[in-house]
Write a structure and sequence with these properties.
By secondary structure, the protein is mainly alpha-helical. The protein has helices spanning 2-17, 26-32, 47-71, 75-93, 102-105, 111-124, 127-134, 142-170, 215-229, and strands at residues 39-40, 45-46, 194-196, 202-204. A hairpin with a 4-residue loop joins strand 1 (39-40) and strand 2 (45-46). It holds the Pfam family ERG4_ERG24.
Amino acid sequence: MLAADLTAVYMWLTGWLAGKSTGQGQLADFVMGTWLNPRLFGGRLDLKMFFEVRVSWILLFLLTLSCAVKNGLTGGMFVILTAHFLYANSCVKGEECIPTTWDIFKEKWGWMLIYWNLCGVPFVYCFSSWFILKNPQYTLQPWQTGALLGVLFCAYYVFDTANAQKSHFRNPNLPARKGAFPQFKYGRLDHPKVLKTHCGTDLLIDGWYKYARKIHYAADWTMAGVWALS
């Protein structure tokens, strides 16, 4: 919490000194941010993306891993550890898809995002891991563990490939990270079907998106349900 607050104060102060403002007052500047993509080392390190991807999700996985080391791999702990690994790994291996997301290309990097990156994601999303650690009397039966893992893997496959389809449709020249695992061929669509909108843009209606407009969210919610049931 202290690191998040100090980082937010620093970003607000540097924005104020640089003359940046949201035009809605200093409180809005602090909470919502004035820098879109602050960078270090000559532009090679995007702070917002680094904190969102490398810090928040990897820290969440490490917290869950520490609970597993302390508690042992019970059924529920194995499910939540697997789930957090898959999510953290997907964020890192699919990093090329993240710049097109709303919070990277549109939202400014203020206290709201900084606090959520450093505190919200790792220390709120690990509640399931902490509960399993502190309540060993609640255990999953083997069939329950297997069922949850089955749902998790299916939802993850849809989540991974649907987000990849969406991102590569927006930018067909996105490179895939070499050596990243797992790589699914269904994440890229050759000559996808599109629907012309009234404003002249193309709407993807192929792959997973011929079944639902927000199917990546449905898969995300399903994985969140597995986290809760673990």
